[in-house]
Amino acid sequence: MQNPQSNHQKRYKGPALDKDLDKISFVEGAAESLGRRLIGPGLGVVFMALCAVVAAFHVPAWSLSDTLVLAAAAAVGAYMAMNIGANDVANNVGPAVGARAITLTTALILAAFFESAGALLVGDDVLETVSSGIILPAHQVNSAVFTTAMIAALVAAALWINMATLIGAPVSTTHSVIGGVVGAGIAAGGWGAVNWSTMAAIAASWVASPVLGALVAASFLAFIRYMILDREDRLQAARFWLPVLIGLLVGAFTAYLTIKGLDRLLAVPHGFVFVTAPLLGGAAWLFTIPLIARQSAGFDNRRQSIRGLFTGPLMVAAALLSFAHGANDVANAVGPVAAIVNVQLAHTDTVAQAMETEPVTTVPLWVSAIGAFGISLGLMLFGPRLIRVVGQRITKLNPVRAFCVSLAAAITVLIASGLGLPVSSTYIAVGAVFGVGFFREWSWRRRQGEGASRLFNRSIRNREAHNSRLLVRRTYLLTIMTAWMVTVPISATIAAIVFELLRLVLGLS
Q1: What total number of domains does the chain contain?
Q2: What pLDDT, in 10s, does the model give residues 40-67?
Q3: Least packed by Cβ within 10 Å: which of 157, 205, 209, 453?
Q4: Where are the transmembrane segments (predicted)?
Q5: Domain that includes residue 438, residue range
């Protein structure tokens, strides 16, 4: 007779083993998933450590404490640069990805290359504005206090941008870092330590840049609609006007690069731009005429076919915008680091004496490199999330609309960078997206007439359905505007708190 206890053991041996195996598999899967999530932060920590080592060996320090301070500043600047890449670069390639003109992988590679090029070639003027234009050199601020204030500003800006990225909010990195500089500067030297005339000019550019971006983008969309999409022979109009737009784009980019980029390599007279810009712009126009004609061979006259021709120009515009963003926003990452380097090199008691001894003329290449490669690394590791937010959730984009957004944002940022104003590329790009969306709404209502518009509104039974029919999502407009308004006070407050903590720890007077 068989033992009942043995039967009981046989009955539960299999299921118990399966449960144990399931638990082991679950733990292994969780560990693997956690490992994948930690790859990005791990690479970020390695990059920060490498930047600290490079800074420690590139600037002669008078003491070990100076070396440690400079290394810490470089590491925080690298952290800030990666946050910029994770949050702000989405504005450059998000429209192209949202329009499905390029894949996310292609967008990441394109943006990383041109971001680095713009930061390394053309970033000096804006670096000078952030590193020496916001805090008054004439104000007798102790050099050690000034260095601590710059580190506090970077820490505050990086923390705020990191939080915003985690919640999926595209905030202004320029707002963040300048708010941090202002908050730390006030905590260090009082209200008189801040150059309020420079701040007023920067604040005016914050207001003007989204409006200008919206107007320029809407104007481009109106032009393309009137001259190409609404024509009877759309295909022929596209073959004529697309090369013209590309030629204008290349000409403008050449003019900017000639004036603002080549001065780091060789002395170029400003009059030379009147030769190079028309020459290369005309060459691009002539070169793209047969390309557009060959690409459009066999196309029909539908709008959908015409939109496919904008994929190539959209990639050019996205590359131009990435270059401009690298030139403009590298200051947000390493502008305070550049200021610390100049104070360290001068080795004086006050900031005013440091600026007289080591005036900010040319930012060291290794300082620009920290920002350039940090932005690219942050984009590759953490950027895809916000790229989808900017490209898909504000308004529906196609290649034509995305081209208008990218081109308008590129032109606006390039002009601002040429003037040395650290405007927010987030403001400009998001303003351009909203400008395109609101122009679509306006043109639809204009075509349908007021009667059709009232009928359209009456046919919608509730507010939620009405909002879902709008071409621009108002909730995102409200959310983004709220984030813009709180960024400066939040980053300034965090910077003041961090500065006071550092001053207490370091025993600064």
Answers
A1: 1
A2: 788 888 999 998 888 887 766 566 677 8
A3: 453
A4: 43-62, 68-89, 101-123, 143-161, 173-194, 206-228, 240-259, 271-293, 305-324, 363-382, 402-421, 427-444, 476-499
A5: 39-233+301-506
